[in-house]
C-alpha cells in the first residue's frame, strides 16, 4: 500500500511539474499573442496617422499651389488689360478734346452769324481762322476690334482626369514589409546584420539599414548603410548593449522607401579589437583600431599585437591598409598564438601571416601559394576554423585543437579595424 501511495505521490508531482511547465508555455504564447496584437494595432494606428498627415499636407500644398497659380493668371490678365486699355484711353482723351474744341467752334460760328453788320466781318474772320487752325478734316484713328486684345483663359480640362487618376493610384497599404532582418551575428565591437527579401513580387533596387540604442529615450535611428548588398557590419558598438536594427527597401524605378521591417534586437559580448598601447615606434588612433608606424630612423620596429587575445574560431578578422610608406620583406600581417616581446616579424613559429609581397608564412615557413601584393587601400581578411581535433595525452587532460587560419586577400571590402 505504501508503494502505491509513493507511486501516486511521485506521479502527482510529475503532473504538477508538467502542469506548471504547460502553464508557463501557455503564458509565453499568450505574451507572444499580446505582442502580436500590439504590433498589429500599433502599426495600424501609425499607418492611419501617416496617411492623415500625408494627405493633409497634400491638400494644404495643393490648395496653396492652386491659389498661387490662380493669382499668377489673374495678374497676367490684369497686365494685359492695363497694357491694352492705355492706348484706348489716350485715344479717347484726344477725341474728347476734339469734341470740346468742335463744340466751342460751333458756338462761336453761330454767334458770328447772329451778330450785327458792324462786327459780323470781324467775327466771321476770327471764326474762319480758328476753324482752319483746328483742322476739321483731320480725325484720329480708332483701332478696329480685331486689332485690340480679346482676353481669354485657356484651361486644360484633362488635368482633372490626370489628377483623379494620379490620386486614385497614390499610396498603397501592405500588411508585411517586403524585407526582414534574417540574422544578427556578434563581432568584436560590432554586429553583422543580414536581411532578405520576403515579398517575391517586390523587386528591390537598394536597401537601407538603420540602428539605434534600445530603450534610450529620445534616441533616433541612424543610417548604417544604403546599397544593394544584403548584409552590413555595423561598427563601433558598445559591448553588452542592446541595439535595435531595421531595414527597408526601394523598389525598382521608385523614389519612395518601403515600410520598415520589424525591429530586431542585437548585441555583442565581444569588445572591439584594439592594438596594444605603448608599443615603441607606433602611434594609435583614439579608438586604438588604427596603428601608424612613425619611427623611420629605427632599422626595425617590433611587432605590434592586439591588446588582448580576443580572436576565436568562427570570427572574421580584417586588416585594412590606410597608409603605406617604405616596406620591408619581413613586414607582414597575421595571427599568432603567443605574444613574443621584441619580435621583429610574424614570420616565426606559431604564427600565420602574409608579407607585403603576398607571400604566405605558416610557422615561419613560406608556403607555395602566393597572394597579390599588399598595397594602399587593400584589405586582408583571415577566417579561422577547426581543421583537426586530437588528445595530446591519455591522462584526461582537455583536448587540444589544431587551428589553421586561411588568408583571403580581398579588395574593396569595408575594413573593421583590429
Automatic annotation (TrEMBL):
It is found in: Cytoplasm. SUPFAM superfamilies: Fibronectin type III. It comes from the Eukaryota. The keyword rRNA-binding does not apply. Residues 9-36 form a coiled coil. Pfam families: fn3. Residues 397-412 have a biased composition (Basic and acidic residues). Residues 393-418 are annotated as: Disordered. Its main location: cytoplasm. One of its GO terms (cellular component) is cytoplasm. Residues 177-272 form the Fibronectin type-III domain. InterPro entries: FN3_dom, FN3_sf, Ig-like_fold. Keywords: Coiled coil, Cytoplasm. Transmembrane segments: none annotated. CDD domains: FN3. Belongs to the cytokine receptor-like factor 3 family. May play a role in the negative regulation of cell cycle progression. This is Cytokine receptor-like factor 3. It comes from Takifugu bimaculatus.
Amino acid at each position: 500500500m505504501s508503494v502505491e501511495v509513493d507511486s501516486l505521490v511521485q506521479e502527482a508531482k510529475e503532473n504538477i511539474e508538467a502542469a506548471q511547465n504547460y502553464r508557463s508555455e501557455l503564458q509565453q504564447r499568450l505574451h507572444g499573442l499580446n505582442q502580436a496584437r500590439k504590433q498589429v494595432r500599433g502599426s495600424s494606428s501609425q499607418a492611419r496617422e501617416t496617411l492623415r498627415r500625408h494627405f493633409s499636407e497634400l491638400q494644404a500644398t495643393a490648395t496653396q499651389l492652386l491659389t498661387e497659380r490662380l493669382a499668377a493668371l489673374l495678374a497676367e490678365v490684369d497686365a494685359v488689360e492695363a497694357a491694352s486699355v492705355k492706348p484706348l484711353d489716350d485715344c479717347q482723351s484726344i477725341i474728347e478734346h476734339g469734341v470740346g474744341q468742335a463744340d466751342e467752334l460751333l458756338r462761336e460760328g453761330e454767334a458770328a452769324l447772329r451778330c450785327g453788320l458792324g462786327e459780323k466781318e470781324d467775327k466771321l474772320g476770327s471764326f474762319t481762322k480758328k476753324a482752319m487752325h483746328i483742322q476739321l478734316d483731320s480725325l484720329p484713328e480708332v483701332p478696329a476690334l480685331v486689332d485690340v486684345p480679346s482676353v481669354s483663359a485657356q484651361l486644360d480640362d484633362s488635368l482633372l482626369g490626370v489628377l483623379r487618376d494620379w490620386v486614385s493610384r497614390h499610396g498603397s497599404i501592405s500588411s508585411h514589409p517586403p524585407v526582414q532582418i534574417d540574422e544578427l551575428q556578434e563581432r568584436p565591437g560590432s554586429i553583422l546584420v543580414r536581411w532578405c527579401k520576403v515579398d517575391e513580387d517586390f523587386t528591390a533596387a537598394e536597401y537601407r539599414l538603420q540602428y539605434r540604442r534600445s530603450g534610450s529615450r529620445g534616441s533616433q535611428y541612424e543610417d548604417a548603410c544604403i546599397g544593394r548588398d544584403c548584409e552590413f557590419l555595423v561598427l563601433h558598438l558598445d559591448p553588452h548593449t542592446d541595439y535595435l536594427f531595421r531595414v527597408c527597401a526601394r523598389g525598382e524605378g521608385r523614389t519612395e522607401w518601403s515600410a520598415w521591417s520589424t525591429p530586431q534586437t542585437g548585441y555583442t559580448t565581444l569588445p572591439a579589437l584594439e592594438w596594444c598601447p605603448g608599443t615603441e615606434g607606433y602611434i594609435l588612433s583614439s579608438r586604438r583600431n588604427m596603428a601608424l608606424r612613425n619611427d623611420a630612423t629605427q632599422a626595425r620596429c617590433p611587432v605590434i599585437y592586439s591588446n588582448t587575445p580576443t580572436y576565436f574560431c568562427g570570427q572574421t578578422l580584417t586588416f585594412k591598409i590606410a597608409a603605406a610608406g617604405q616596406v620591408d620583406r619581413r613586414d607582414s600581417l597575421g595571427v599568432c598564438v603567443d605574444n613574443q616581446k621584441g619580435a621583429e616579424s610574424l614570420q616565426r613559429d606559431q604564427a600565420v601571416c602574409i608579407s607585403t609581397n603576398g607571400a604566405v608564412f605558416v610557422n615561419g615557413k613560406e608556403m607555395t601559394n602566393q597572394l597579390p601584393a599588399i598595397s594602399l587601400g587593400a584589405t586582408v581578411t583571415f577566417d579561422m576554423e577547426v581543421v583537426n581535433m586530437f588528445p595530446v595525452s591519455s591522462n584526461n587532460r582537455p583536448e587540444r585543437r589544431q587551428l589553421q587560419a586561411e588568408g583571403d586577400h580581398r579588395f574593396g571590402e569595408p575594413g573593421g579595424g583590429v
